[in-house]
Write a structure and sequence with these properties.
homodimer, 432 residues, alpha/beta, Dihydrodipicolinate Reductase, domain 2, six-stranded parallel sheet, 14 helices, 17 strands, 27% strand
């Protein structure tokens, strides 16, 4: 049986999972693909610590060059994460004629353009199924399964940590910090969860989804990013009363020839499928011109689910290598109906706004007056009951569609009023 | 640019969609795949009637042999449906060296073993993404995206008509026949909807899903099939009170080394994602050993969604042809942990049971006594309010896990009681 040699750089959690699958499923895979995937070398900076999978000491090296320079290795799997030296390793490996499998969303979001161009120029492939949605085969679905489709929008719950925290707040009626502690306790959040909670991880994945759906590799700085750390239990409950759940969504949306690319907490109707995505699960909801609205749901992280995606990439690559095929569908085609990126200031939408005001006559009139001055009209208002400890009362307003810029100006003016006691909270509403 | 010639047999609804996509997306597809998919001939028995897409008269033929015998045609797309002459056309085409794309679930469910064997022996491929779930790329996900996974179960809402009817009953509080009329009115049900409503269409798709997940092409006669025509509005509402929705599920499930393959109305917890799948939408929920629990959701039917799946198959096949590749992952590998098919009599599960009894003392005791005699224990009982017109009252019982066979015997005995006024209704409960 023909053998394809691969080298693995980075043998942490997901890397160990790949080793385990290639060993445990050796027979199944050979039977399915008619050749053997041979793990020839493993590079890790940590050569001594225990892993939850047995690794043959002879395969281990501390020097990535032992893999990159090995002429018998056809595919390099990069699982060290982070920008450097991952970028250098991949660049070198491609130049040495290797094909790449990676789960590195940060790297692809930051340097995808350069790496994809290099791969294309040299006739090599970069596969990255594990970079978004763990074991959910979303990359393959967008690239191959929906190959004839154009996309209108993609809405993703793509960060398990944030979704766990919001679900926990909603289901157990607890505040953000308590939910985050629970996430840490259960191993769903890093010690420093900033990247997840503040939306950067979602933004990395959104850059990749945007590339697949619209053929545009947008720069990370052009993605509007807002995390969930300012979401309070009160907001979750008020939203619920209005028939909405709050989710951290990664959104890429074509409207009037402009592409919006943004990550932020979002109110979505409670009967939408995305509202039912609880805990650390991920889901990607795409709207396409032929296949309609589709949802892909599954665990967004985990050793074996991400490794499952890596191995599916390996299988595809081995088929390509066996046939001497470079799969041109790897290259996304730019959606030429998009004329420009839409700045967040120019995005229009409905909003949920939570004001904290003194319970005095005339307050609502003042707020409504300022909103009207900026051309913003109110769809509904409700004043919430004041708790004993509160000096001020919460007022929740839903506004009709307005431009973000106008809303920001209005809110700044409102927040300067004497009767307003806390910075107002505005959360976007999406019909999805 | 290299050209791959295809022939289309059957230019009805989906066929016209394929013609439309190949024409409207010609540039996009060429750009993505680096070659041209050329629709060389179209065969349809109806050469005169108007279609919603323009078809060049020169391409049309009334004789499938014009396609099957054309040495320049590499791929035959079969979209006539039904068993004959579809089977003969495909068999002939394979023998003439063509690869096949089909959406014909009935044919694959009935004669898949023979056709797949023929294709394998001759080194040709049969692609069938459009056979299950319309435009949802579920076949590709199971075969390629989850290539390293073993599956524990697959639960599918795979018939849009039935799901529309059940959703309509549930959402609009109407009886089966009213919901079915509405489905017909809106074009979601055929004039004779038996195939959809009685579960046979779901069973066809289940045979295909079972083949992909477990590598076994079960015979249609080994699939237990029960439709939704006996589901009443009362049952939907009682189930709702208990926290369940009723869905027609296609289920393949491995338990204790035995494979259960069955289609029937099922109570599933209302907070499960499958419960939120409304209208004509389809969803397939799979449980896998590596990637965990995944859901794939989208429109299960429709001209362009099914055609989108056909075109994705065409694209895959053109890549294979260009590279001279036969993709061995096309062949499912048998799950050897399965020792036998489990007969429906031997399936164990929880049940919802609806009795219609006289409102007299001792009735419940009689029912409970018979259930106990067959080793069946009751989890909950509730007697429903009698409406004015009723002589008898509904009693709803949930039982703990019991064997189907024992339950059937118990129900037959109960139904013979004088105090029981209608045939009892038993619906399986799945935890999913």
């Amino acid at each position: 049986m023909k053998k394809i040699n691969i080298g693995l750089i980075g043998c942490g959690n997901v890397g160990s999972g790949v080793v385990k699958i290639l060993r445990d499923k050796k027979t199944l895979l050979s039977e399915k693909i008619g050749l053997e995937i041979n793990l020839k070398k493993i590079c890790d900076k940590d050569l001594s610590s225990k892993r939850n999978v047995h690794i043959d000491k002879d395969l281990l090296t501390g020097d990535a060059k032992d893999i990159i320079n090995d002429p018998q290795i056809d595919i390099v799997v990069e699982l060290i994460g982070g920008l450097h030296p991952a970028k250098e390793f991949i660049t070198e490996a491609i130049k040495k004629g290797k094909n790449i499998v990676t789960a590195n969303k940060a790297l692809l979001a930051e340097h995808g353009a350069e790496l994809f161009a290099l791969a294309k120029d040299t006739g090599k492939s970069i596969y990255f199924e594990a970079s978004v949605g763990g074991g959910i085969p979303i990359i393959k679905a967008l690239r191959e399964g929906l190959v004839a489709n154009k996309f209108n929008s993609v809405f993703g719950i793509v960060n398990g940590t944030s979704n766990f925290v919001l679900s926990e707040m909603s289901a157990n009626n607890c505040e953000f910090h308590k939910a985050l502690s629970e996430a840490k306790l259960r191993g769903f959040a890093e010690k420093d969860p900033t990247l997840d909670i503040e939306g950067l991880d979602s933004a990395h994945k959104l850059v990749i989804l945007t590339y697949l759906c619209f053929g545009k590799l947008v720069s990370l700085k052009d993605v509007f990013i807002e995390g969930i750390s300012r979401i309070s239990l009160a907001d979750i409950n008020y939203a619920k009363e209005l028939g909405f759940e709050i989710k951290l969504l990664a959104i890429a949306k074509k409207e009037d020839g402009q592409l919006q690319v943004r990550v932020h907490p979002t109110l979505i109707p409670e009967n939408h499928l995305l509202s039912s995505v609880a805990g650390v699960f991920n889901a990607i909801y795409v709207s396409s011109d032929l296949a309609g609205n589709l949802l892909f749901y599954g665990p967004g992280a985990g050793q074996l689910s991400a490794a499952s995606a890596v191995v599916s990439d390996l299988v595809d690559l081995t088929q390509d290598l066996k046939a001497g095929l470079f799969r041109p569908t790897m290259n996304s085609v730019e959606d030429k109906s998009i004329t420009k990126l839409c700045k967040i200031d120019d995005v229009s939408g409905r909003y949920y706004i939570h004001f904290t005001v003194l319970d005095k006559p005339g307050v609502l009139a003042k707020i409504a007056g300022i909103l009207a001055k900026f051309g913003i009209s109110i769809a509904s208002v409700s004043q919430k009951v004041k708790s004993h400890s509160q000096q001020a009362v919460p007022v929740v307003i839903i506004i009709h569609e307005a431009k973000e810029k106008n809303l920001r100006l209005a809110l700044a003016a409102i927040d300067r009023l004497n009767v307003v006691k806390e910075k107002s909270v505005a959360i976007r509403i999406e019909e999805v």
